[in-house]
Amino acid sequence: MLILLPPSETKRAGGAGVPWDASRLALPELTPIRESVIEALVALSDDPDAAARALKLGPKQRGEIEVNRALRTSPTMPAIDRYTGVLFDALDAASLDASARQWLGEHVLIHSAPFGPVGALDPIPSYRLGAGIRLPGLASQRQLWAGPVAAALDRYARGFVLDLRSEAYVALGAGPAKRSAYVRVLTRAVHGQTRALNHFNKNAKGRLTRALAESGADLSDAAQFMEWASGAGFETDRDGDAIALIVPHAENLLTAAPKDR
Hints:
Radius of gyration: 18 Å
Structural class: alpha/beta
Number of helices: 11
Strand content: 15-25%
């Protein structure tokens, strides 16, 4: 079983790991693309005004340019600990025991913009780059990543793939078509109908991933996942080719999380 998570715009600073090394990341066949993106991102930092425009940074965010400038030399930490925000706060990987964290390392990839999908425990530095940003001198991220990432995921995934990414990151490399299930988070309103969630969908995905890690589940298909989810207290349903993860209206209010920092 493999879980694909999106990244977060917000990240924890610092780290105790050695500087970034492409050879320490999952999916090593993506190294040439990773290197070209990192090179372009670091080079862009030499022109702060151009970097602010390209990365769509406001005046209070310009410190992110220095973060990118130091990308090759700054300390690293496991990807699952690097990201903050609603999904990763709900997952709260730092509070998991060693076996649950090992499960994350074996079963979770986080799809970053500069590195592509990386293992949950792969060491990465802090950075600033979103999925929709086109770096000077490079093709669009979709053109760079989509084909190679899809091929790499097809080789890497040994079985069922649960895709919790946002559509922006799915566009940068789809999971294996016959073995993947995309998850949409819906809420059940008081009158019983369902509708899509925006902000709170991240909280639900984080809680789901934590529950899977704590259970040590290794599920072989969507049907097994839905059976497991029911036993773990999650409501699911079919939503066309996808799986709907349904958050009851009252639970949606009770589990309201703060906006991404």
